[in-house]
Amino acid sequence: MAAAGAVPAAAARLGRAVAAAPETRLESVRAMAGLFREAQPREMAKESIFQDLLEILMSASSEIEQAYKDSCELVDLNTCLLLIAECFRCLRNACVECARNQHVMRNLGLISTSVHLIKLLDGIQTKEELLLTALRCSLQFLGNIAAGNGDSQNSIWKCAFPDLFLTCLMYSDEKIVAYCCMVLFTCLDSEKVRELLDPGNLTVPLRVLKVYKEQLESEWSVTLLELMMAELSDKNPVPSEEMNVFMRHAEFLAGCFQEKCEAVLKLTSAADAEDEEALVTIRLLDVLCEMTSNNGQLEGLQALPGLLETAIDTLRLTHLAGKQAVNIFTATHMTGQEEISHPAVGFKSHLIRLIGNLCYKNKKNQDKVYELDGIPLILDNCSIDDNNPFVNQWAVYAIRNLTEQNERNQDLIAQMEEKGLADNSTLESMGLETEKRDDKLILRSVKKKPS
Length: 451
Known about the structure:
Elements: H1 6-17, H2 22-35, H3 39-44, H4 47-69, H5 77-94, H6 99-108, H7 110-122, H8 129-146, H9 150-160, H10 163-169, H11 174-187, H12 190-196, H13 203-215, H14 219-233, H15 243-260, H16 276-291, H17 295-302, H18 307-324, H19 347-358, H20 363-371, H21 374-379, H22 391-403, H23 407-418, H24 424-429, E1 432-437, E2 440-445
Antiparallel strand pairs: 1-2
Helix pairs in contact: 1-2, 2-5, 4-5, 4-6, 4-7, 5-8, 7-8, 8-11, 13-15, 14-16, 15-16, 16-19, 18-19, 19-22
């Protein structure tokens, strides 16, 4: 634990070092950063310390700006970057679980200064480790000053959204991207979520998902998709002037699902029950189900290339996996009331729901399901299954959408029933029955008898 007099002494050295040579400033800031790793010194910090750190950061910022303005080489760039990193380490450490320090730093303008400096650092034509370290520390500071502090969160959002987030999410450095996501999600509240998921601002959340595709860092992607689900569930209509933008984003999400859908098969192993790539695949499917449930957006989504085929192929793969061995994709029916807790519960139900949505009043997609042998597959997945609640209801919905004004699909199901390939009781549960007319089997809808 730091001695009682350590903080005042270090603060005095820091104050004297503000106008000193960069090496002297670096030594003093580094000493202060070390002290602030402990709670007691953090609580003893005076405003003057943060004022001194602010002045050092502003001085470093000015040096960098002047050097690039005059197109001259900054001889001591390395020391300058080290100094910036240590200042942010010091600030980062000082505001951990310390609302008072967060408040003081925000009032001094350290948030706006930090955002400005991050943008400035991004313009430096080097990607060496010293620069990356300075950027990482700056983002960690913003994350810490925002933690549990609504005023700081609002201030960061005002200064940083969307430009700073887009800038940092573009880096190939995984730590910078992860820290940027940390800041972004720490700042979110219900109002900011609506702003984030507004069709005009979807570039930022889609960049988070693009990072998932490139780096497989999906922790933040899962969180983002949860937020999208909440927003889409409200069934907010997309304004007509923004529909083109929305459809580009919907196509991107569908592409993510198509590219990663087979990851869900990892969940056949109990050891991989929390595989993040599989979890993102599950949430992407949920989002696509919600998107295709909105009539205003459905037509464009029905035309997305490959989405319907992917849904059918994935249903076939998971259904086969459940038959080959006992796992989460195996149909089960327990007499007890024990609830199954697994991320893939309902996955096959949602695949059938998506297929049904994509075939709603769409002859082309109805025919495509026929050609891909999707109808027998759906009928084979409509028995009671505790691993897939409501699967029977979604199968009923899908079959009705597949057979509406589509004689070929109706004939196929009728022939399956005659050959014993489709259970008559299953058809009855769907409100359907076969009838022979002039030597031809007809599938027709009937009203269920009251039980």
